[in-house]
Design brief:
Elements lengths: L2 H44 L5 H31 L6 H38 L3 H17 L6 H29 E6 L2 E7 L2 H12 L11 H19 L1 E8 L3 E10 L6 H18 L13 H25 L4 H5 L2 H16 L9 H7 L1 H21 L6 E4 L19 E4 H19 L2 H25 L1 H6 L1 H24 L16 H31 L6 H4 L4 H21 L5 H23 L7 H17 L10 H4 L3 H12 L2 H8 L5 H5 L2 H11 L4 H9 L3
Antiparallel strand pairs: 1-2, 2-4, 3-4, 5-6
Length: 712
């Protein structure tokens, strides 16, 4: 072995011996330090007797031990590598012991650091350095969370609990600082905000509140409560009420106070804008603090803006700017003043950071004045049209071309037959036609908007009028007839407008193919439906009256009861009342067709039971003839031309033939049947006529012969 190798080997042996001696000593030192640190922690955080100097001494000891362990570990590992072939078991055990000692030391070192930071926290809290306190607490929570599990679990848990208590206490203290320095009050119609001049303490408290908060809008702080107070008691009243706002200041506080003067009235837009600027100025001067460091990107006013900016935009637009939209062309020309003032307000909101730099909701709204103007005018048109629709229906006027019964074909398509309509329909049509004429002269956008508005007005007519006049339309026949005529007259005029105005509207609207077609269909449908429902109601009444007439039970009694004639007369009287009301209201054709349907219902109620009787005595036959004569004599008078009754009453001829059969002989009946070619054959089926003959005449050879001649 060379001299150099001997020297190196000798040095390594000395190094190994040194490790073997020092490892047990280090283990004893660590155990001693652990005991001291546990005792210290228990004294400070369990028994509440503080020893900050002792902790500092222990921290220094722990750091020195850490350095010594690191040196020994390094030497031991080098020695292990060189002695590996010699399998130095003792040295390997020492290395493992050093790793265990180092683990325990790391735990003790972090606990000592925690104790040191707690001492610093107390000092900073006394100095009201709330941001630094929050930073220390945040660091402590992370350090304690990162300490690996050790036999000192109980002591570590005590430290975590202690730090949690300090964190909660800090949160309460900074909230109290905010509450003491920012005082909000509301009493009756007065609201105020008083802000302390001690801005450094307030700023520290706010920074601490928001330190390490990733989602500031969800942070439940006093500032969130302040936002709600500011919104409900300042911004909303400024826009919605007439208010006074004033600012006062002294050495201790700055004050802004709002008093609601008239709760049910609004200030004009200029006053609203001025009051908002006054409030913004106060907030910028006395409540503009950073909430984050070091960039100061988030401030109190930006925080408020994040919370309320969308609602504030909507409030100003819907409750203020919307009221500034003019109703006249002259007002539209002068609207640039409002646009300029709106732009100034939006700049003030951006400067205060309540609005972001790229937000332009107010000026965008104001710059759309042309569209807003026509929208407002169209809304006003709809309101005015509804007021017209709500006028009485019975105030009527005659319109249309007279019906010529001698030349009915001359009353062709395109003509509106003479009838009565409500005067308010003329007013409504004139109103809408004037608007339509204006649209021809306007821009494409305006023309399209006005056309849609007119369409909506007439669609609304079919909904609003039946609803508003609901009770009258169900009970008063004149009102029903007028509404029917109104709908058809409006539809007639809309068809005319399709040919008169639509081709003059801008071609870009692409409406020439449809125009008012949908409205025409809807008007006719609703007008017919309501009128027909009323007519069905009249027929239902006739059916109910005749059901109580006892006519169906007459054959059993052998004679008519007085109630039967009374019921028939009641039905005729009901139709005569309809004639009185409808004769001059409905057009010639509609009037006669409608009365024909109602009278035909009565005729059917007479004919149907009689032709089913199995036995009709001579006396009963005479009574039935007299009963039918009531209808035959009074029925024709219901119509404009009594000679046309058979045109409108489909069972009129059958009623006449029934009347003939009831009073005729077998020979007369046979002659009138005329082998199925006579008048009787046109109205009665063979079975019906045979049933009548069997009921009227006794069973004789002559009756049998007549019955034999009546074949299908």
């Amino acid at each position: 072995m060379s001299y150099l190798a001997e020297v190196i080997s000798s040095a390594e042996e000395i190094e190994v011996d040194d490790i073997n001696k020092k490892v047990p000593d280090l283990k004893l030192s660590i155990d001693k330090l652990k005991g001291e640190l546990v005792q210290y922690t228990e004294n400070v955080y369990i028994k509440y007797s503080g020893r900050p100097k002792e902790n500092k001494k222990m921290l220094t000891t722990a750091q020195n031990l850490e350095n010594e362990i690191n040196t020994l570990q390094k030497h031991a590992e080098n020695a292990v590598k060189k002695q590996l072939l010699k399998a130095n078991k003792e040295l390997t055990e020492h290395v493992e012991t050093l790793h265990t000692i180092d683990f325990s030391l790391q735990v003790l070192l972090r606990m000592s650091q925690v104790n040191e930071k707690i001492v610093e926290f107390t000092t900073q809290l006394d100095c009201k350095e709330y941001l630094r306190c929050k930073q220390i607490i945040t660091g402590l929570e992370k350090t304690l969370a990162d300490i690996p599990e050790d036999e000192l679990v109980e002591v570590i848990d005590e430290l975590k609990f202690y730090v949690k208590e300090k964190s909660i206490g800090l949160a309460h203290e900074v909230e109290n600082i905010f509450k003491e320095n920012v005082i909000t009050q509301r009493k009756d119609s007065t609201a105020s905000i008083k802000i302390s001049s001690n801005i450094s303490t307030l700023e520290q408290a706010l920074l601490a509140m928001f330190y390490n908060e990733t989602d500031t809008l969800k942070y439940n702080s006093k500032l969130s409560e302040f936002n709600r107070f500011l919104w409900n008691n300042f911004f909303v009243p400024i826009v919605d009420n007439i208010v006074d706002i004033k600012i006062d200041q002294n050495e201790k506080y700055s004050l802004v106070e709002l008093v609601i003067k008239e709760a049910d009235k609004k200030s004009e837009y200029g006053v609203v804008f001025s009051n908002i600027k006054t409030l913004l100025s106060f907030l910028e001067q006395h409540f503009s603090f950073p909430l984050t460091t070091p960039d100061n990107e988030l401030t109190t006013l930006k925080y408020i803006g994040l919370d309320i900016r969308d609602n504030l935009s909507e409030l100003l637009i819907k409750h203020c700017l919307q009221d500034t939209i003019p109703s006249t062309v002259e007002g539209l020309k002068n609207y640039k003043v409002v646009i300029e003032e709106t732009e100034k307000l939006e700049k003030a909101l951006k400067h205060s950071k309540l609005f972001s730099e790229d937000a332009t909701p107010l000026i965008e709204y104001a710059n759309n004045i042309d569209i807003l103007f026509i929208n407002k005018k169209c809304s006003e048109y709809c309101v005015q049209s509804e007021q017209i629709m709500k006028k009485d229906l019975h105030d009527m006027i005659e319109v249309g071309e007279p019906y010529d019964p001698d030349n009915p074909l001359d009353c062709g398509v395109g003509q509106f037959l003479q009838c009565c309509i409500s005067k308010n329909v003329i007013e409504l049509l004139n109103f809408c036609e004037k608007i339509l004429q204006q649209s021809i002269k306007g821009s494409d956008v305006n023309a399209g908007r006005i056309l849609v508005t007119i369409q909506n007005i007439f669609r609304n007519y079919t909904k609003l009028v039946p609803e508003y006049h609901n009770k009258l339309l169900k009970t008063i026949p004149q009102q029903v007839a007028l509404f029917h005529n109104n709908c058809f007259y409006i539809a007639h005029k809309l068809i005319e407008w399709n040919g008169t105005y639509l081709f003059r509207l801008p071609s870009t609207l692409n409406i020439s193919s449809t125009g008012f077609e949908l409205e025409v269909c809807q008007l006719r449908q609703v007008g017919s439906e309501i009128f027909n429902n009323y007519v069905k109601g009249q027929m239902k009444q006739i059916n109910e009256i005749m059901k109580d007439s006892g006519l169906e039970e007459v054959a059993l009694a052998g004679e008519l009861q007085p109630v039967t004639e009374k019921c028939v007369r009641q039905c005729i009287r009901q139709q005569e009342l309809l004639k009185t009301v409808w004769h001059k209201v409905l057009s010639y054709q509609i009037y006669n067709e409608t009365l024909g349907i109602v009278l035909n219902s009565l005729c059917t109620n007479i004919i149907t039971p009689i032709v089913s009787f199995e036995d009709i005595s001579t006396n009963l036959g005479e009574q039935l003839v007299e009963l039918i004569k009531i209808i035959l004599s009074r029925g024709p008078k219901l119509f404009t031309d009594s000679k046309e009754i058979s045109i409108y009453v489909s069972s009129w001829y059958k009623l006449n033939e029934l009347n003939f059969v009831l009073g005729a002989s077998l020979m007369d009946i046979s002659d009138r049947w005329a082998d199925g070619k006579g008048p009787l054959a046109l109205q009665f089926k063979p079975l019906e006529l045979k049933t009548l003959i069997r009921a009227l005449f006794q069973n004789t050879d002559r009756r049998a012969a007549v019955l034999a001649r009546i074949q299908e």
